[in-house]
Amino acid sequence: MRDLNYQLKQLCHRNRDGSFATQADRERLLNLCANDLAERGFQQMSVDSLKPKHVAALLDKWKQDGVSTGTIKNRMSALRWWAEKIGKENVIARTNGEYGIAERVFVTNVSKAKVLDADTLARVNDPYTRMSLQLQAAFGLRREESIKIKPGWADGGNILRLQDSWTKGGKYREVPIATMQQRAVLEAAKALAGKGSLIPAQLRYRDQLNRFRAQCDKAGIHGVHGLRHEYAQRRYAELTGRPCPANGGTTSRQLDASQKLVDHAARLKISVEMGHGREQVTSIYLGR
After folding, report:
1. Looking at residue 155, what is its pLDDT?
2. Partners of residue 174 on adjacent β-strands
3. Range of 235's domain?
């Protein structure tokens, strides 16, 4: 391991800001930054030697590599965290716009939904990871929620209850159990987890998160957030009787007044079910 990689790892371990998932993602991103800097010729860097030229070199590489705007913004957040922890906040500009990083386009009317088919699921060896993926697909859960969930407690009859300690932002929420397929998935999860969660008894959350990532990589499953997109689009069709714009349906401009009311109500409901609470966010999943 290079000195910079090791020092960044230690910096992360000394400063445990955010959830376990956030910490793990930050450590992974900073390790990637260190590797990219070494590839650009900065072989002798230390954690305290971050300068504007290093930020510029990284951005140049990422743009040449065709990295998406959203991914670059995530990496920039990790870089700003690094700069803050070493007392060099001014090394990085306050806004991404100063680097010519465009605003993310949320409304594309292009579907990012992913379907979890049986062949793909069969390539996942760990039963807990396999079950978490099925819960994500059936209920639109986030990755952390699908790992921390205690299925026995979560079963509220006609609703799936999500404890605040499992969810992003620490907000309790409920997701309808509206289909037999959802009920079958939850029953399978209860049978596997017993009275516990989908973290095996001998492991911590971080251990299972790492196992989840490794299992998905090995099975060729990338971008599991696409399962939430598929859930949102499926729910929209259930609630409105038509496909959403991202899935080839009628756009908002083409709806009549009564259809717009139905569209707005469905989007609000889906937003709440997915833990957002803002109608505008549904454009990411459903298009507009």
Report:
1. 98
2. 161
3. 227-286
158 falls within a domain: yes
The C-alpha atoms of residue 228 and residue 113 are separated, in whole angstroms, by 7
Domain boundary among 188, 220, 252: 220
Q: Which segments of the chain does DSSP mark as H helices, in order?
A: 3-14, 20-39, 52-64, 69-85, 118-122, 127-139, 143-148, 151-154, 180-193, 205-219, 226-240, 257-273, 282-286
Domain boundary among 173, 201, 220: 220
Let me know whether 70 and 134 are in one domain.
no
User: What does the CA dihedral 30, 35, 37, 42 come to, rounded to 10 degrees?
Assistant: 120
User: Are 79 and 133 in the same domain?
Assistant: no
Q: What is the mean pLDDT of the chain?
A: 92
Return d(Cα 113, Cα 115) in angstroms, integer: 7
Question: In this structure, is residue 19 part of a structural domain?
Answer: yes
pLDDT (0 to 100) of residue 249: 94
Look at residues 226, 228, 215, 222 and name the one whose alpha carbon lies nearest to residue 141.
228
92-113 pLDDT per residue, tens: 998 888 888 876 655 667 788 8
128, 198 in Cβ contact below 8 A?
yes
